Amino acid sequence: MTDPAASEVPASPAEGAIRLYGKDDFEGMRRAGRIASGCLDAVADLVKPGITTNELDRFVMDYTLKAGALPAQLNYRGYPKNICTSINHVVCHGIPDDKPLREGDVVNVDVTMILDGYYGDSSRMYPVGQIKRAAERLCEVTYRCLMLGIEAVRPGAHLGDIGAAIQQYAEAERCSVVRDFCGHGIGTVFHDAPNVMHYGRKGEGPQLKPGMIFTIEPMINLGRPDVKVLKDGWTAVTRDRSLSAQYEHTIGVTETGAEIFTLSQAGLHAPGLALS
Question: Which of 12, 19, 88, 204 has the fewest Cβ atoms surrounding its Cβ within 10 A?
């Protein structure tokens, strides 16, 4: 889940510092991440025309509690539900309701689980029945942006390398990168330093070090990058009503690269897409 007020991200123990986690913390993040990814695997069988996002919300709540975890999004800054469900031109923070999903929709389901004090945060796009090629292509581009961002993570690299990799690919595919929301530090705190931008220049920003944990969650639009937040204070939509897509993983910086804590255990990394 993106932070609705990135400027209010809580500081680490030293003002402006980025937390570095140890071996036991990484194991805690693996456990929390497995619950998040397992839940998103299970959601894939439910997303069909006619189901409501409130039904998905209730399913995720039940799944979370049965797994011994808690939903981090419920009541976070007043957010009223357990998950975010962002449909078509909704960029992020869509609030579940009783409106049925329709054939041809695409929906992002964003979950965050708390297990033993550790946060596992992840989201995926799901096609609702048969979708148009434009929507399918946008999902393909967005998933590739996520993985290119993760591939840029290694000790000695910079946060700007992640954003540069994502921006370069998205814009080469004639899509745009949302600037208003970003990834974030996570671990034993839901939203922490650093802010992880999905655009930027190589070599800029803080240097990556083993022990850092954060999300990468690019939001990519078919049209312009501009967004607006609706009157509910949460739902962010594209200003030009173009389609938007997002995928998210929680990752940790290792001695050699990145460990993905929220990787699908069922191979459902991008449900409905035939990725090469």
Answer: 204
